[in-house]
Request: fold
Amino acid sequence: MTAALKDSASVGLGLVPMGLAFGMLVTHSGLPWWSAPMYSAVMYTGTLEFLLVPMVLAITPLVTVGLTTLLVNGRHAFYALSFPLHRVNGRLARLYSSFALSDEAYAMTTGGQARTWSSARIVSFQAFNHAYCVAGSLTGALVGSLIPPRITGLDFAMTALLVVLALDGIRDRRDDLPTPLLALLAALIARLITPGQMLLTAFCLFTAALLARHFTTRRGPADA
Amino acid sequence: MPESRYLIAVAAVCCAITWALRALPFTALEPLRSSRAIHYLSSRMPAGVMVILSLYTLRTLPLTQVRVLAPLVGLAVTVGLHLWRRNALLSVFAGTAVCVALSSTLFAP
Reply:
């Protein structure tokens, strides 16, 4: 438990400014304050939460909301490939662990330092991060009206957090530079060819490129 | 303004789909766990996934306007601090603080 609290302090606390930004966005758009912590608690995925605000304001039909969720969060299906759910014991713990499988939880539990984490450490790490996110969101929603609207740029916290996770991921495998380069390329191509569906296209391209690399290098013995 | 029932229905729909996307692949992919290709993918994906997500959040940068400097300086601070001190919390907070300070004052819309 204490170990998980320490683990979550390093990256997880980056979720607080993101939650704050989301909560403030919710109240500034005129939505009721309770919808901010509710969305953070049941979805627990910053990207979708931020996207959802303008959609909810426009009273978008539920079918469209569902479809958007499917497309924006389609990437989570890939996380099952490396997330250590097989190391989580107990039915309830596994249910919760799969529910709270956010981008940040995925990044931290698949990193080199997490290889020895126990079941309890993984699950409590996820729970702490989940709590930071909801607490930030609730606080942002409640104090949002006190902060003048000219304070902008808080949503940069999400970018900063993801960049930090990317740098840690790259450093974990510093002998493998082609992988981040392929990801960069996949993202740029996706941005150009399907600007409206950048994330899903990028993930598919990136996975396809990695698979192609795997099958070609297996045959070439001279590959490093 | 949307009513409460609609807001709650949206939460329920998003929750169900997100959880299904996160949980179902574990059962579906179980037989593939021993595959070498999956092993290769799973060890290489995390870093690349974060690179893609970072670029995704930067896709709306106003590249032709001077206020783009706020997030760019914030980004430089985050990356620089992280390469130097390796303290995630420090990098995120400092980068965000710089970005908020710049975009709310010097580059205010």
About this structure: The two ends of chain A are 40 Å apart (CA to CA).
